[in-house]
Amino acid sequence: MEAAVEFDKTLSFDREAEILKVLGHPVRLKIVAGLMSQSCNVKKIWECLELPQATVSQHLALLKNKGIIEGRREGVEVYYQVVCEEARKIVGALFECMSCR
């Protein structure tokens, strides 16, 4: 016999849902996954992903606007890093699931 399921209508998952929407694109997932281990500039990211610079810049802008990454200027370069702990946990959980395949 299954236990009764209770739903808590007072819980708000607005921020979590927003993070999931932003991470719901393969390119953005790859960017966040790569930035979890080291900060990188846009050139390194587009070279590693073999994508046009404009495409990577658009995805970086969205991730930055949603508070998932931040840029740090060093001279003319901007180095990006993941600053959203929820995003780190979500991508980390995906890595764990992928390793179970």
From TrEMBL:
CDD domains: HTH_ARSR (cd00090). Residues 8-101 form the HTH arsR-type domain. One of its GO terms (molecular function) is DNA binding. Keywords: DNA-binding, Transcription, Transcription regulation. It comes from the Bacteria. It holds the Pfam family HTH_5. This is Winged helix-turn-helix transcriptional regulator. It comes from Trichloromonas acetexigens.
